[in-house]
Design brief:
Blueprint lengths: L13 H27 L8 E2 L2 E2 H5 L5 E2 L2 E2 H15 L2 H4 L4 H29 L4 H25 L6
Helix pairs in contact: 1-3, 1-6, 5-6
Length: 159
């Protein structure tokens, strides 16, 4: 069965457009801060640095890099792309590929978050509150997208 990208796409629920936009902006703000911390160092980090909550330990661990790229920069890129695919204009698009891309992007994001949380709990054995903020935002975005986009794509053509 081939995918039909010209099928009818129903209008996005207003709550999904607003919440995805706000979540994306929140994730972008945290990612900008974490990217700054990556380059400026510990003096820019506002978080506990000992015990179970140790942002410095998490953000400087080997797991804070993926394919030699700092995870903070990957998060920044994720939310910059998110600004486009979660914009009101993208939500209003009749092109199913945009909405499918939104789902794929959300699944990739939550998959990466699950890996990062596992690394914090099982390998690093410390949590970063800022990272947890990004993880929660990514999870909330995943929920918003999965509750709204599949219904939008299941519209029936009445031709």
């Amino acid at each position: 069965m081939a995918l039909d990208f010209k099928r009818t796409v129903t209008q996005a629920p207003r709550w999904a457009v607003i919440s995805s936009g706000l979540l994306t902006l929140g994730g972008l703000a945290i990612s900008i801060y974490m990217t700054m911390v990556h380059f400026l160092g510990k003096q820019a980090l506002v978080c506990s640095a000992s015990g179970a909550i140790d942002c410095w330990k998490v953000t400087t661990s080997p797991q804070s890099y993926f394919l030699h790229i700092p995870v903070a920069i990957l998060g920044l890129g994720y939310f910059i792309v998110g600004l486009g695919i979660n914009s009101p204009w993208a939500w209003r698009s009749n092109d199913a590929r945009i909405h499918i891309a939104r789902i794929v992007f959300a699944v990739m994001g939550i998959g990466f978050v699950l890996w990062l949380v596992a690394a914090e709990l099982l390998i690093i054995k410390s949590l970063c509150l800022w990272c947890t903020g990004v993880h929660l935002v990514t999870f909330a975005l995943f929920i918003v997208i999965m509750l709204s986009v599949p219904a939008m794509l299941n519209a029936t053509d009445e031709t």
